Here is the input.
Amino acid sequence: MKKAIALILSLGMAFSLAACSGSSDEGSKGSTSSESGSAEVTSEQPAGQPDEVGFVELPIFEDEEAGFMNVNAVYFEPVPMSNGQDNIEDYNLHLECDVSALDNDLGYGLGDWVPYLTVDYEVISDNGQGDVAASGTFMVMSASDGPHYGANIKLEEADTYAVKFTFHNPEENGYLIHLDAKTGPGGTFDEYFADGNLEVYYEGWEYTPQEWN
Amino acid sequence: MLNYFITVTKDLLVASLVLGLLASFISRNFGRTGKRIYVSGIILGLIGSVVMTVFYNATKIIDKTGGTGSWNLRIFSVSTVALVIFLIFAVKPIIKKTKGAGEVIISAAAALLAFSVLFYALPSVLGYPFNFSLGGESYFSTAFIYRMIGYIFGMLLCLLTAISACKCSSKLGEKEAGFILKGVLIINGIHQIAKALQILHAKRIISGSAVFRIIKFTSNNGDLFIYLIIALAFIMPVILIIKGLNVKEPYENPAQKRKIAAKWRNTRRWAVTHILCLVMVVLVFTVFTAIDNREVELSPVEECELRDDALYIPFTQVEDGHLHRFAYETEEGVIVRFIVIKKPNSTSYGVGLDACDICGETGYYERDGQVVCNLCDVVMNINTIGYKGGCNPIVIDYKVENGYIIVPTYTLIEHESEFK
Here is the structure.
């Protein structure tokens, strides 16, 4: 009995400490790290902690690379958005894809957000072996921490999911690159999209629905 | 309406049962001091919930202090410690032995438990009206009023459940009431620990496949805890009704007999009230939820003429101002659907795929003269159908000629992938 009481009290203490500190080695939010001309984009935001503008994002994966892009995925509470997208009753999370440029010859600064992408998403149950639990095309939007690709979705079952992001050529949305030697950055999208769309496929997202409020 | 009735009931049910049962325990065992301490816990919980609601919906304070998950961890910590103290001290020999000090300790633990369940459950409920006015709907719109009615009904059901639980518990024997109360508190405590593990795991503070297996089970079977609590609460009125069938209390005169009969009549009424509340709650969890989640059946695809690689839709078929759905089967065997609706107060038509970039091929349906996305429930502005953006139907090529809307098949084949 005493042991049981001690265990429960310890759990209480552990929750308190976790709630107060919540330290973690993992990162969740892409940001630029370019010391000494290093061409790496890494995540520095501690997982599950409020960022500098003050909202908490929970990590899915960090620093996956697709062509010239560094990709992070996070999720948080469903959010109302402009242009008639303010009904969040039927959703239980906001899935966000942060895309920043790696070292490239397309004119993007290292760590810049990559605009004009069409990004399709699929969330597949049973770690990629089951049904597609959610799919669609991300919308483009801005939060207080900047622009990103994202969507409110509904994912009710706790499961280990695989996440697939498909990136279309920005030229599909009319984004162009200077080709002349004088003003052009030197590269073209064909270098990356010659074989079709780019893809990030991540297995092992251990997800449980969260209570957001 | 149903959505908020269900949501509010689910959010507040456990809190209402805990509050009702604890109230009965305190008033049975303690005097004015204990009651005051317990009521203070409830009042603090109410005030704290209002403050939390304002902070959550109108400021960034909650997120800057760790987010809702961290706040729930704090609440669960306080609640767990209070539960342990309550379970240790709230037994008859200790209550008798410790007297005044025991009254303060146990009442304080009960007050903390009351504060915790309210502070955990109420802020989200108080915050729902912030979402009632969607898409610029007026506060006097039918949709707003329906949501408010569902919201208030949910609150009233939980309030009545709390009162009837308190009444039933107070009419039970001390041991039976104690068993029910502690059972409810322990099940709720275990559920809170499971939820805490989910939060810690999502924040990557804990990990491991064994941990995930446990929280996956508790998350996907969360209603099991609620049903166990409902089952325990259901025992109370059943015992009372059974006892009421076989009353053998001694009386000395007809007045005493009438008094005893009135007491049991009152007991039966509260027992029946509590049963009805719990039955309604179970209906909310099952039947009402199923009704609320049922999918809208899209109107059937209409016939139209196919010639010269185009679909011809006569104005006469679509000029009634309602949503009309058409389809074309590609060589790959994919049915590509599109919609046509005459715009209000206009001679022009809105034409687009029965799918959008965001929600995919889920389709649109007509509700009260409005076009609504079947997945996200966004109400379309009919005048903007045919334009790109948001949850609008994907734009397709078409032309209007000689009283026909003509949709070339190539534009439908182009969007074949949307319907695979």
